[in-house]
Amino acid sequence: MTTHKQLALSIRSRMALRDMTQAGLADAIGMGRSALSARMGGSREFTFSELQAIAAALGVSLRDLLPATEEEQR
Description:
It contains six helices and no strands. By secondary structure, the protein is an all-alpha fold. It is globular and about 35 Å long. Helix content is about 70%, strand content about 0%.
């Protein structure tokens, strides 16, 4: 699985824990729903500042959203 897909999956799972829709997250971070959808679907990459905003909106650290490295998985 690619890093981008892992990241999108992590965001989706955090959204589910907070019962948040893509539209709700998009509103919370000041992004259009279609723009967020494009990033979640992999046709556009997230910027660092977007990931920071997403983490803040979900109440987690940016590190919590990022996939574990191979070393961390051991």
